[in-house]
Amino acid sequence: MIISVLEAATLGKDLDLTPFAEFGELKTFDNISPEDEKEIISESDIIVINKIKIGEHNLKDVKRLKLICEMATGYDNIDLESCKKRGIAVCNVVGYSANSVAQITLCMVLSLFSHIEEYRKSVYDGKYNREGIPNILTPVYHEIFGKTWGIIGYGNIGKQVANVAKALGCNILINKRTPVPDINCTDLDTLCRNSDIISVHTPLTPQTKGFISRERIAMMKKDAIFINVARGAVADEAALAEAVLEDRLGGIGIDVYAKEPFGADHPFAKISGRPNVYLTPHMAWGAYEARARCRDEAIENIRAFLSGERRNRVDC
Questions:
Q1: 260 in active site
Q2: Is the pLDDT of residue 132 over 90?
Q3: Residues 236-258: what's their mean pLDDT?
Q4: Average pLDDT over residues 259-264
Q5: Phi/psi of residue 198, each to 5°?
Q6: Would you list the domain boundaries of the chain?
Q7: Can 2-92+288-306 and 98-279 be said to share one CATH topology?
Q8: 101, 90, 82: which is closest to 203 by C-alpha?
Q9: Could you tell me which of 225, 264, 217 has the C-alpha nearest to residue 243?
Q10: What 3 state SS string does 43-109 have?
Q11: β-sheet bridge partners, residue 279
C-alpha cells in the first residue's frame, strides 16, 4: 500500500510525518505541480492533502485510490461527488485547531485595538527618547472591556473565541446557521451593524461564499475591527480593501484569501503595511500542537478506515 503526502511543505518542516509509514510505503512531496499530481494520485492507495484541489481533473483516471485524508476541518477543496462515484472515501479532522485559531484571532484583535505595533515602533525608532516625556499616548487606544464582539460561526473555533471574548469582558453576539436559546444569537445584518469586533469562523459553503458582502461591510461601524480566519472567499476582499483605504473600518486582520498566495494584483496588496492592517500567511491553524493533533487524528482516520470503521467521514 502506498500512502502519499502531497503537500508536506504546508504542514511544516518540523512535523514528523513518518508515523504514516505504519500503513505501508510512505511517499512525501513538499509541493507537487499540476503536471505531476495526476500521476502521483493514480499511483497511491491513500493520499494525505491539505489545500490541493481534488476533482474530475485529477481523479478521472484513478483506479487504486481508496482514501483521501484532508489535514484540515474544511474540505471545500474536494469535489465529493467525484469521490463518491468512484467509491473513494474522504475524511477530515475536526477540532484540532480551535485553540491555535482562537489565539491568533485574539492576537490580531488586541494588536489592532491597542495599536501595539505603533507603540513598539515609537521606542525602536527613537521617537520615545526624542519626545523627552515619560509616555506616548497616541494613537489613542480604547479598552476592549464592554465592547461588542460579533462571532460568525459557532463551531469549535467560534466557541473558543467566545470563551476568550467573555473572559475579556466583551458582550457577545453570535451568528450561526441554527440559533440556539442559551446564547445571544442574531441575524448577520444585526451583527454587522452592532459589533465593535467581528470575527469569522465559518466553513466555506455555497451559502457562506461572499456573504460578507460589500453591503454588509458598509453596515459595519467606522471603527470596527474585522477578522477573517475562516476562508477568504466568504468575504468581498475588494470591498474590505476599499473600506480600509477610505477609513470606513478601524482595521482588519486577515489570515485567509480566496487565492493563496494572493499575488501582487490582489486588492490587499494596496493596503499591505498599513498600521491598521494585519495580513498573515494562512498560519492561524498551525501552532505546532495543533499540527501534531491533526497528524495524529489523520492517522486514526486511516486506521479506522482500514479496519472497516467510519471515522470523520465527510463523503457519507
A1: yes
A2: no
A3: 98
A4: 94
A5: -130, 125
A6: 2-92+288-306, 98-279
A7: yes
A8: 101
A9: 217
A10: CCCEEEECCCCECHHHHCCCCCCCEEEECCCCCCCECHHHHHCCCCEEECCCCCCHHHHHHHHHHHH
A11: 254
Respond yes or no: is residue 143 known to be catalytic.
Answer: no
- Cell numbers found for residue 213: 458582502
Q: What is the average pLDDT across 222-229?
A: 98
- At 179 the pLDDT is 85
Establish whether 81 is a catalytic residue: no
3-state helix, strand, coil in the chain (%, to 5): 40, 15, 45
Which residue in the list 39, 215, 260, 289 is annotated as catalytic? 260
Instruction: Return the SS3 of 172.
Output: strand
d(CA 93, CA 239): 32
Length reported for the chain: 316
Mean pLDDT of 205-231: 97
Catalytic one of 216, 282, 291, 293: 282
Quick one: cell of 159?
A: 466557541
> Of 201, 216, 231, 291, which one is the catalytic site residue?
231
> How far is it, in rounded angstroms, from Cα 228 to Cα 213?
13
Q: Is the pLDDT of residue 180 over 90?
A: no
pTM: 0.92
Architecture of the domain defined by 2-92+288-306: 3-Layer(aba) Sandwich (3.40)
Question: Residue 216 pLDDT more than 90?
Answer: yes
Looking at residue 173, its amino acid is: L
Residues 6+ apart with CB under 8 A from 248: 217, 218, 220, 222, 242
Does domain 98-279 fall under CATH 3.90.190.10? My reply is: no
Q: How far apart are CA 192 and CA 212, in angstroms?
A: 9
User: Residue 104 contacts by C-beta under 8 Å, 6 or more apart in sequence?
Assistant: 229, 255, 280, 283, 284
Rounded Cα–Cα distance for residues 197 and 226 (Å): 6
